[in-house]
Amino acid sequence: MSAIVLLILGLGGMAAGYFLYSRFIATKIYRLDPDFRTPAHEYEDGVDFVPTNRFILWGHHFTSVAGAAPIVGPAIAVIWGWLPAFLWVVFGTIFFAGVHDFGAIWASVRNKAKSVGALTGDVVGKRARSIFMIVIFLVLLMVNAVFAVVIAGLMMNFSTAVVPVWGAILVALIIGQLIYRRILSLPVVSVLGVVALYVLIFIGPSVPVQMPAEVGALSGNAVWILILFGYAAIASLLPVWVLLQPRDYINGLQLFIGLIVLYGSILFLNPTLVAPAINPDVPAGTPSMIPLLFVTIACGAISGFHGLVSSGTTSKQLNRETDARFVGYFGAVGEGMLALAAILAATAGFATFADWQAMYTAFGQGGVNAFVEGGAYMIHNGLGLNEVTAATLLTVMAALFAGTTMDTGLRLQRYIFQEWGEIYNQPWMKKNAPATLLAVGSCLLLAFGAGGADGTGGMIIWPLFGTTNQLLAGLTLLVITVMLVRLRRPMWYTLVPLCFLLVMTIAALLIQLRAFFEQGNYFLLFLDIVVLVAAILVAMECASALKRSRAEMTEQKE
Length: 558
Hints:
The chain crosses the membrane at residues 85-109, 130-152, 158-176, 183-203, 223-244, 256-278, 290-309, 329-354, 388-412, 433-453, 459-485, 492-516, 522-540. This protein is mostly helical. The protein has helices spanning 3-29, 39-42, 54-66, 69-77, 82-109, 116-123, 126-157, 162-180, 186-203, 220-237, 244-269, 289-296, 304-312, 323-348, 353-359, 367-383, 387-423, 432-450, 458-461, 465-486, 492-519, 522-557, and strands at residues 214-215, 218-219. The termini are far apart.
């Protein structure tokens, strides 16, 4: 099949989701009020609570939730064939991710911008909040520790991307000053920022920066990880308008340009999908497609991490409640578009089926490498761009998104420690600096405590990310559903995705439990049991909370 057909169907479906379905959800279900005073105005402090232009906020939200995951997940899942991955990304974006992300912003804004973890205590109960906070902490720990490894790996393997990736931070700092001091208008700043970013990308191959393989007692990879956490700690303490917002905004623009380049190369090259629609001959050891497809592709279809960003940073910056539709739902559509690009690059970016099979020799293969190599192949042959430059462009794209997710993830982890300080009455933990040190310290403890001098400890627990992350998405949908029931509004639009996620997550956890036992991996076996118990407790809390809410409604009617 031609990749163009898949491209048109995918983009058309997501466009219909935004223009039709999200409008219905906004007006009939969440019932957005343009006159509602958002927490960004009510608690404005110039650091975390900052009323923000919706386009800039969309850039922050979109790039924070995107990261490398919508590239990695789909580019691994195509091992089962391109059709299941395509259907889950398109329909998951429309009916799952958009409603989830949009709803998390709405729920938080309506409750003083509380994170979805803290909000659970008010909406469902303290027991559910305790479960939620543990799951949130695990997800953030995984995201921060693993994305540091991913970015460090890209820096080590693609030395041409080092200057563009770090130069983008300087560009963002300048952009932030130009925007918020109103020196230049947003359109002018946007053009200048994008031009500067792409100039850096073209300069990158001329000035490669290679970290030595060994630096003292540490590997080069470990040094990059330490540098990344040092940067993320500083970024998490700065006011959002100084670095976080402008960096994410300009990255969002460059992603769309990168997608246009990638999609344009498909239109010019008209490549064929060399991978099968359904792969009947998967490599030995590949797990069952159902339910593993739905946890392998999380970001790009639905992801619990999005609920953390939506309720952790985005809700504190929303200027008007009606902006939540554009920021939340369209942010999910943007990520779905990136996941679609990853599927096309990983299935149509190879000359032959044999080349594709050589990449996918085992489950877990592909990922960023398949996206970069496949995408560079299509851009080079479709648009004539030098293959090294094309690979640098896509590598920078992946690294910048992983970096923005890490920035936001560490800030969110700081919020978790501060919320624990509030819950357990520890005033010192409520302060930004101590909470940031705790966040960084916990990540480094995992990275170097479990991974030794190489700093790759986060990879040890990464196999549980998909299931833990989707459990988190189910918890977020639970909070939104209970709110809708109490407001006497239709709940099916969130309840159906909630039930589907819980069933698939619990099934995936059981499959992984058996695999870890057979492998003798008792550490992951223990963590799997912890997450599985949390999933079952969440399901019970879900039924209990919904039953209580409906009983309250019945009493009120009587």
